[in-house]
Amino acid sequence: MDFLFSLFGSTQGLISLALTVAVIIDCIRRQRSWLWILLAFFLPVAGPAVYFFYFYVMDSQAWRRTGAGLQRNRRLKELHNLSKIQDTAALHLEMGELYYDKGEYLPAVEALKRALDIDAELVRAHYFAGRALLQLKRADGAIAHLEYVTEEDPRYLYGEAMLALAQAYEAANRRDEAFQACGKAVGMTNIAEAVYRHAMMLVERGEKNEAKTQLKRLVHEASAFPHFKPSRDRKWIGEAKKALKSL
Fold this sequence. Notes:
By secondary structure, the protein is an all-alpha fold. It has helices at residues 2-8, 11-30, 35-42, 46-56, 61-83, 89-102, 105-118, 123-135, 139-152, 160-171, 175-188, 192-204, 208-224, 233-246. α2 (11-30) packs parallel to α4 (46-56) and α10 runs antiparallel to α11.
C-alpha cells in the first residue's frame, strides 16, 4: 500500500493512475502483451507515454506518410547515384514511380520516358506516365499511354488503368469514349470512384433511374461491409450520398 501511495498519492499521481488504467483497458480490449501493463504500472508516467506514442502516434497515417517520404527520398538518392554507372529501364521506372508517389509529376514523366526509351513495351511505365501526364493536365499524352496499357491488358491493376483512361478521355472532352471506358471499369472493379463517375455520366445522358440504382448499390455495400472499403473510397461514397439527395 505504501508503494501504491507513493506512486499515486498526489494530483500528479492521480493523473498517472488514470493513464495506467487507460493502458490496462486498451491492452485488454486490443489483446496486447501484458508486458505493456507492467511497464505502465512500474513507470506510471513514462510507461503510458511510450505505449500511446508507439501505438497511436507511430502507427498513425501521418507518421507512416512521413516515414514513407523519408524512405522515398533516400531511395531516390540511391537511384540517382546508380544511374551514373548503369542505365536500365527498371531503374528509371522505379524512379518514376517514386516521383509519382511524391506528387512530383514532371520528373516522374521524365524518368518514365527514359524507361520507355530503353523498353518501349514496359506496361507499368506506360501506366504511370499516363497517370502523371493526367495530373499535369496533358490529357492527350495521357490517353496515348493509357490506351496502350488497356489494349495490352484491359484489366490492368484490377481496372485502375481503365478508370484512369476514362478520366483522361473526360479531361480531353471525349465524352462518349469516357462513358464507355468508365462503364468497362465499373464492370471489372468495385472502386467507388468508378461507380460514382459512371453514375454522373448516366445523369448527363438523362438516365437518372439507372444512375440512382448504381449509387444506392454503392452506398448500401459501403454500409453493409464498412471494413472492406479502402479509405480512398470514403470521399466518393460521400459524394454518392450527396448525389442521391439531389436526384
